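Need residues for this backbone.
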């Protein structure tokens, strides 16, 4: 029943009908700050996406735990943080079932999450590796065009930003944005003093991710 509910949510969202949907923010264990962009990040992205794409996403984000059956109530889950992440076996199983049932997980490294999330993703999909998506991938070419791939919002270690994914049964089920820090760019401007240009690029890329998941899921 939960699998059917999730698939129906995704199908109906693709029609951009009048029903309102929520995005879930993933709460996880391990000491990492899953709540780091809690106040304004997703709400600002949702407001921007509703305006630019005509979607009807609730501005009130939901907080959902990795092991909860409620995960299946949200077709799109966002995850962020700076540090350690731990999924126990039941949480890993739940996340795997969620993704295989039609759900989507966007992971945004807020800085310092990379070694931990890569380790934990192996619990979810032991036989899969994160692959870097080519710049030609449709996720970079929805309403907003990013011919050079994932935009760089914060410098951090001065590495190039990279977008990684896991594809199952011909569908991108997970998108991991590394060395970009999109979520900080979605927050209110006074929080990080990002330039209007950087915030615009972050919001447009975020809208592309939502557009790709809910409107078109072609995989190259």
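Answer:
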């Amino acid at each position: 029943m939960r699998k059917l509910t999730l698939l129906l949510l995704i199908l109906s969202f693709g029609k951009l009908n009048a029903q309102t949907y929520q995005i879930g923010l993933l709460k996880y264990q391990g000491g990492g700050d899953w709540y780091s962009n809690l106040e304004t990040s997703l709400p600002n992205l949702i407001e921007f996406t509703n305006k630019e794409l005509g979607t009807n996403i609730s501005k009130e984000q939901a907080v959902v735990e990795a092991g909860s059956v409620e995960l299946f109530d949200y077709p799109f889950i966002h995850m962020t943080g700076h540090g350690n992440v731990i999924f126990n076996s039941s949480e890993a199983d739940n996340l795997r079932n969620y993704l295989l049932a039609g759900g989507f997980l966007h992971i945004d490294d807020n800085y310092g999450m990379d070694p931990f999330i890569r380790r934990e993703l192996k619990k979810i999909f032991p036989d899969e590796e994160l692959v870097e998506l080519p710049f030609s991938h449709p996720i970079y070419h929805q309403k907003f065009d990013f011919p050079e791939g994932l935009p760089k919002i914060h410098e951090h270690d001065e590495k190039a930003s990279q977008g990684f994914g896991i594809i199952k049964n011909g569908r991108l089920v997970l998108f991991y944005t590394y060395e970009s820090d999109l979520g900080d760019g979605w927050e209110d401007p006074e929080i990080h003093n990002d330039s209007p240009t950087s915030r615009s690029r972050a919001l447009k890329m975020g809208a592309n991710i939502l557009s790709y998941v809910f409107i078109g899921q072609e995989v190259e």
